[in-house]
Amino acid sequence: MSDNATASAPSQQAETIPTPNPPLRWRAVSALSRFYPLKSGCAKFALNSKMRALVGPYDGFIWSRGPFGVRILAPSNDYVGRVVYFSGDLDPKITWQCRRLVRPGDTVLDIGANVGLVTMILSRLVGPAGAVHAFEPNPNLHRLLDQTLPANGATNVTLHRCALGEAPGELTLTVPRGNTGGASLVTNRLPADRVEYTTTVPVKRLPDALGSVAPIRFVKIDVEGFEGEVLRGAADLFRESPPDAILFEVNRYDGRAGDHPAFAALIDHGYRFFAIPRTFVRVRPRVMSLDEQIDPLGCDALAVSAQAVRDIAKRIGASGTPHA
Asked: Residue 58 sits in which domain range?
């Protein structure tokens, strides 16, 4: 277990955030809209101008219900909370991957937990015999997570209140207006007019923060451009005991896949890769070449360890098996 300064259960003295019922119109629309059926487009559906005009303004905190009936607490005007409230999920492709890869009793990591949607999904999937380690450095989200975890009975979740990187220390986290999920440790990633606030956060290497745990089955990473640093900092752990599957996002990158820092770090540990293309109806992972160009609009990638590649390719119904 990591030190108590950065990994802890909810504090008994934690502030309770008031959550009055949203306006009736919000609740009525959500009761129908949250069954949005497609695998992509949740954000466009929930945030479009017609939806905003239909439900009207509301500024407060809301409980949004996601897959498996999980509940997350978030500001009503924040990207993640609002999308889940009106769509029932944030990115169904990610939920689809989690369902197929995570099993009861697994140990899994959620790096970049934000308000805890994927953390709670993983908590349900691993069950009481499993363990979820969630990493979130933003102190303004800790008070939300301190209510979300007990509200879901998530006693199998350990919240690590730190960022992960290549070296221990402190870094500045820049948080964009209206989207805490877009927060980044990358310098100058956001234009000044989009920044809501900055905060200094502790940074640890994954092996130091995690300590001794069971073999890791699955890792989800969403750290807005800091993936390479996270993975390089995890090199010692991955060399000794590579996780079976690592799901990560690549965006704001225009170049060859193999040259991206996240891919480069994982190649050294023998990982093979699947792309998770955008889709509206059926998720169809495909083998990803290191020579292919990354879509500048972004893509989701699944890195799979050599010993698990055949099993996972079958689980996700991938077209083909990647070679070393």
From this structure: 24-87
